[in-house]
Every structure is written in C-alpha cells, then in structure tokens.
Amino acid sequence: MMDIFSIFSQFSYFGIFLLLVLVNTAPILMPPTWLILASFHALDDTLSPALLAIVGATGATIGRVALMYTSGFFRKFMSEERKSSLDGIANYLKSKKIGYFLASFLFASTPLPSNMLFIGYGLMRAKSVQIYTGFWLGRVTSYYVMISISHVVLTPFAKLFEDRMLGIILVDVLSILILVFFACINWNMLITQRKIQFVKPKLWRL
After folding, report:
1. Tag placement on the chain: N or C end, fewer CB within 10 Å?
2. DSSP 74
C-alpha cells in the first residue's frame, strides 16, 4: 500500500485525484476514500486538508458516477416486482424538489462507504444532477472533518485494514446486506400506504 501512495504522491494533488477515481469506480474491496486522504496527509502534512477534501470529493464523485452507470446493467436480471419497487422510490425522490440532493448529501456527510448507494442508484436508473452535487458537497464536508481529526482516528482504522483486508471485507459485507435489505422493501407500498412490506426474495435470473 505504501508503494501505491509513493507512486501517486509524486504527482501531488493530481495523482491523488487519479487514484481516488480508480478506487471509487470499484464496487467492493477498496479502503474508504477518507482513509486514503488521511494517509496522504499523514505522509505529507504540507498538503492542505481543504484542498485534499475538494480533490477527494471530485475524484470520488467521478468514480461513483461511473460505478452507478455500470451497475445499471444488472437491472435486467431483476424481477419485475423488484424493478417496480425500486422505481417507486426513484419516482418519490424525483417528485421532491431536492429529494435526490438531500438523500445524497445526508449520506455523503457521513464516513459510510458509498459504493452500495451508487449501485442502488444504478439499479433504480436514477438520473439527476442533484445526485452529483449533493454527494460532492457532502463528501467535501465529511472528508475535511475526517482529515482534520486524522491524528486521532487514523491509527485505529489503519490497524483494522492491515490484516488480510479484514476491515474492508467486513465493511463490504455489511454494505451488501444493507443494499439487499433496501432492494427487498416494497417502496410502492411504503410510500403510498405507509406500510412496510417486503418483496418476496427470489434468485436473480442469470
């Protein structure tokens, strides 16, 4: 990992930007972007936390948008009932003036991994500039905070991710479970009748 940091750090902020685009395009098995940014700052404290946050948020947004459009391909393997349910939440967010913006901003303001959020958007075939602006602003905020307190949180998190990618796998498994739970909710029923009902689990057609 240190070799990768050394290679990309030679190109300063542009190298960091390229690395984060690549990392955020991958659906799983990647460390959190804020952890990468905090590591670069720990290696070179002359890097501005504010500029790192902006560069990180831009690279993350571009990578996640690429992931979102790639994920849309797998929609054709879903049942019609599940598609209809996801379309329900997509139409609901679209009907609100800043629905997509708020959803993306609130999620991005936390250090939670965003891979499953954009895979979900891809399966919903969501299209709105609010997704990108909300996510970018949220990530700028959360990255700046995490980089600024990295001297406190970096060491324990680095330990979590150093042995056989255990931390990354745990986070990805949790994210996948959340996505499956999200996809199983009957959003049409929840939005129109305020009742929680789940779409009967079925194996996706291969």
Report:
1. C
2. G
Distance CA 204, CA 199 (A): 13
d(CA 122, CA 141): 24
- Taking the C-alpha atoms of 144, 150, 153 and 156 in order, what is their torsion angle to the nearest 10 degrees? 130
* Phi, psi (degrees; rounded to nearest 5) at 186: -80, 95
Query: Does 83 score more than 90 pLDDT?
Result: no
Q: pLDDT tens across 11-41, in order?
A: 889 999 999 999 999 887 788 898 889 888 8
Distance CA 24, CA 33 (A): 8
For residue 76, the model assigns a pLDDT of 83
Gap between the Cα atoms of 196 and 179, Å rounded = 16
Query: Residue 84, SS3?
Result: helix
Burial of 12 (0-12, 13-18, 19+ CB in 10 A): middle
Is residue 52 within 8 Å of 147, Cβ to Cβ?
yes
DSSP per-residue string spanning 107-123: HHTSSS--HHHHHHHHH
